[in-house]
Amino acid sequence: MKDNLQRLKIKYIIFITIFFTILYKGAEFYTRTLDYVPSYFMAWEKKIPFLTIFMLPYMTSAPFFFGTFLTIKDEKKLNFYVKQAIFLTVVSIAIFFIVPMKFYFPKPEIANPIFNFFFYVLGQLDSSFNQCPSLHVSFAFLSIAIYCKEMKTKLKYLISIWGFLIAISVHFVYQHHFIDFVGGFIMFLGEFVLFSMHSHTGLYLG
Question: What pTM does this model have?
Answer without folding.
Answer: 0.88
